[in-house]
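[step 3/7] fold_predict: job queued, chain A
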Amino acid sequence: MRTRHGFMTLALAALVAGLGGCGGESRGASGTASAEGAGGAGPAAAAGPEGAAPLSVDPLPRLVLGGLEADEHEQFQSVAAAALLSDGALVAADAAAATVRVYGPDGRFRVTLGERGDGPGEFLRPTQVVVGAADTITVWDDARFRATRFAPDGELLEVWTLPLEPVLAALHGPLFPASGMLLADGSVALRLIEKAVGTGKGGAKAGGTKATRAPPGGPYRLGSGALRVAR
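[step 4/7] structure written:
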């Protein structure tokens, strides 16, 4: 990806993995899987842990979207997540533009999922895309702790919001949810930050008293390193 004058170009790279124990695999003298890109240029490879198969990236991208002269449906500001459907279609979430778009394997625009807003099927900051059975697409809105599920044609199927009240009740001290991430089993991993009472001039203390509970709107202190998984 590269940013130019506020626009981003999205490139889908071809990832080649050498899987140990697979019959018919071509290996070089060193024992690593070998592959060759177009024009005779080999892919860039990264060695994994000892005994693990290496990964390599083809020097030529499978798909390139965006650019200064691209159509408006191919203009990106901040791509936060992407996923592939079973037919090779690409789903891309632009957190800054609050849009999620689907492109065919050939790069042609198919459909926009939802739009900017706070209502059902809308997003404020989409940061994760998960593809499920029958190519259903679940989008996580980190600004609202909300998961929205779409059919691959854009039909709205389901909206679920993580209730924060039980999470806040279970936390000790001035920890508050800052962001979340969907896990494979349907749970949500929450990143917690420490929130201090007062104006923030005293850091985590207000009037000489250490903050133990924070009202909405107070200053935040990053780096608390807390992680909580909620169902």
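[step 5/7] annotate
The chain has three domains: 8-61, 63-161, 164-230.
The longest helix spans residues 164-170.
exit 0
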